[in-house]
Amino acid sequence: MIGHRLSASRFAVALMLLLVGTHSVQAEEGKSAPVEKDERLHSDGKGWGLDRAKVVDQDRPRVLLVGDSILNGYRKQVINDLSGEAYVDCWINPHHQSKHLNKLLEEVLEHGPYDVVHFNMGLHGWQEGRIKEGTFKPLTREYVEVIRAKFPEAKLIWASSTPVTVKGNPKELEPKIDPVIVEHNRLAAEVMDELHVPINDFYALLVDKRELARGDSFHWNSPAYKILADQAVRSIRDALKADPK
Predict the structure, then answer these.
(1) Helices 99-109 + 136-150 axis angle, to 10
(2) Which domains does the chain have, with CATH numbers?
(3) What is the average pLDDT score of the chain?
(4) pTM here?
(5) Which strand (E) or helix (H) includes residue 186?
(6) Which range is the signal sequence, renumbered to this chain (predicted)?
(7) Which residue in 74, 236, 68 sits closest to 155, CA to CA?
(8) Cis ω on the peptide bond leading into residue 223 (within 30° of 0)?
């Protein structure tokens, strides 16, 4: 977040940094990427931003992965597994449901076209007041509608947010945060059901495998990310093989 007023030119630079990929999710020197002030919700050391594949074959399908630092944990395997089948762009961001996010999404989609969009947002929205009461479902619905307005033929896949565990004791679910994640997953699933968007239930995949949690509440070890990557790849391949709408 920006703590002081920016000139029009500086604001444009900050916005471009978020939206324009340079085949790296790291911030360019001298420019600042979006900051998550809650230190528990960091980018997992790889930065926020849009990582764009180098497109050579215009006939090869293109995929956009959207998520937070959890995506940083499994994106490399997805890219590798789909190598030769599809180009994969990754937008790793610290945002939650908001008009701001939906506007940024419009700009990111300009880097398409995309045949499949696999998306998640959730771990950055649990704090009270971040998402105004009564707006979660309308904003989530609008998010999907932004994608469909831009790419009406694209296949969409929503991934639920992963469990949150007790710091230092990952076998236990965090008693205050995890119930919010569960509720947000439930509300988002209702929207996806309404809009006929298939779901990758990442929460269910890991909730009984908490021994794979890293111990910092939010992040996971490599075996857990492999589980997520395998599921993402399966669903993306299925979507790419599906008949057009």
Answers:
(1) 10
(2) 8-241 (3.40.50.1110)
(3) 82
(4) 0.80
(5) helix 177-195
(6) 1-27
(7) 236
(8) no
